[in-house]
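F-box domain-containing protein
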Amino acid sequence: MVFPSDTEHFNIHYVPSDDEIRNAVRKSEEALQKIEGRMEELRQELRALEEHREIQKREVNIRKNLFIPIHRVNVDVLTSIFLSILDDNDSQISTNHPAVVISHVCRRWRAAALTTKVLWRHLHVQVPFYPRSSSERNAWRVKVVNLVQLTKLWISRSGNCQLNVKILDLGGILGGPGEAAGAFVTECIEFNELVEIMCSSSTRWKVLYLIIGFPQAQFPNFPTARLLTVPPQSTPALTTVKLHCNISEVQQENPLNEHMVSSTNIFSASTLRSLRIGVQVMFHDLMRMPVAWSDLEHLFFDGYAAESPHRFDAAQALALFKECSNLVTCHLALQRDVNIPIGRAPVPLQRLRELALTPHTSHLPKGFARFLILPSIRKLDVFPGYGQCTPREYEGSGLSEFFERFRPTLEDVTFCYKSLTQTGLHACLEHLPNVTSLGLVNDGRITTAAGTGAANLNSDLFRHLSPEFDETGTAVTQLLPCPRIEVFRFVAFRNEVAEEALVDFIEARQRGVNSRSSQSGLARLREVECNYYCFQVIDPSQALRRKRVDMDTFFVD
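Tokens:
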């Protein structure tokens, strides 16, 4: 574009008139306006091209994404991937829950997520911390309203699927609301609606897990109490109840405590097969609970509350076993030591495969094992109690009686080695000929006085467990303890493990076993779990590599 100038004849010899100057300025301004106008048109055109370019870029990326393999995966495979992600996920319901995130990736994923009802079967609700003052009430109410909407959404999207319900109420466990705030929470319409919505889905409950506080003695109508008092006809699919509660003011006249043992409730469900009761739950006699004990297959009882007059012991455990004849797995905490009458008949538990016991001290009662008939027992865990411990020799240990009685079938054993002397530990290991998984534990729950001879994971122990071989690689050690170990686990404090001897034991058990040794019953060690033990003397990985031992499965934290 050419913009001519009318001032070319202006020079030093010519003096223009005012009119000529004004006319020249006007024409120059008009030319400038045309230039600026054209520039604005070009800028607008450029912006339009840039916008079009971005649109075209997105189109190109969309079409390129079609090459990504995930877009070619059929819906069934995609659904399986979604479910595998959520199987072990314990996230509470929220807008950031993986199921929600998956449903917002793209249209195809959203359709798959919304039509996969089991993707929404985990209803994990965390109750907001109770308001401690009136200034916090409105904010708390808003959180509850949001939680109500999310709960409705989850229940709706789960369709007719059975639900795994987990309700977490940390506000209650950490002391509950004060008197004024408690009255507000009890009467809060939104909070009552939340509990009512959860209870309305009870016909689809399969698992109910309550980690919750019930300030019932102070607030008899506290909404969360209704979660325990749902009648059995409203829970036709309930198979598992896990209860970790803090029932405030544990006492006999507490209405909630009384209801747990005297009325029909969630424990009365005819389909109940698994029951887990935490330590701060039971005040009354456990056997008064309206449970069909003979139907239970899995039982975990962590003892009575500290305020209860009851204490669970081995004699009561035998009475419980007599009622629970179909148990497959069981974990019991023994809260006191008792002598078991000699004339008592043994209790058969034909199906019991896994038994875990936490003794009152660190020792199982003598004579306890002989009152049990466990033909199917495969796994035995004896976790230490708390307090001072005097290590025992083999003959004085109740644990050794379990090993002697059930040695033909035991395959997986874990126990506290600090409850035994060194010779007692060696003798116990000699009575585990079929164990493939062995755990030796000292987690700090018990203390032993100096000079009491408590066992350690020392070089003598590892030499005791290590086979010797001839030049052909055949084991020549006779009557080796625990010849079939494939997995070895230990929990120990710093400097409690003979580290070099441990490496020699691993090498002997893993690299030196040939086919002839295997035929004689000596198994190859596959895995060692050290549970974050802090090695001080050697680097076990490097030491084993120098010995040309395969390290792929060793020292799993």
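The longest helix spans residues 18-65.
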